[in-house]
Design brief:
Layout: E1 10-15, E2 18-22, H1 34-45, H2 47-52, H3 68-80, H4 89-92, H5 96-102, H6 118-132
Length: 133
């Protein structure tokens, strides 16, 4: 027997000029709604911003689509949601909920997604490893 009850909606702070509402009655969905909570915690703690400030970005500004802070925030969201490796990132870069959490629903250039893909992420990881050494 199907039930007719539905939990109430929960409204998050607006992102990218859009309302963000968690509901349990269907519609366009993502299984990673926890990323919004991770974003709120990061906004309060400033972890991505503070960690990104530790890096010097030597890339040419005219060719940069994703700031270091964007890449750091994306990595924090990945780890918090259990995406330790880069296998899923080409699909996740198009996930609307990840886009909302990053503050970008689309890329700045015609062929760019809201979030960085696997190749950009691998390059960023190599730079981070070099900095640690």
């Amino acid at each position: 027997m199907q039930t007719e009850c539905s939990a109430g909606a929960y409204e998050f702070p607006a992102s990218c000029g859009r309302r963000v509402v968690a509901r349990f009655d269907g519609g366009r969905m993502s299984s990673d709604g926890g990323v919004i909570l991770v974003k709120q915690a990061d906004d309060i703690l400033g972890l991505s911003r503070r960690f990104a400030a530790c890096f010097r970005d030597k890339r040419h500004p005219g060719f940069v689509e994703y700031r270091v802070e964007d890449l750091v925030r994306q990595r924090i969201m990945d780890l918090a949601l259990g995406y330790e490796d880069l296998n899923d990132h080409d699909a996740l870069r198009h996930d609307l909920i990840f886009g909302l959490a990053s503050g970008r629903l689309s890329g700045g250039r015609a062929n760019c997604a809201a979030l960085a893909g696997k190749s950009t992420r691998k390059s960023h990881r190599r730079v981070v490893h070099r900095v640690r050494l």
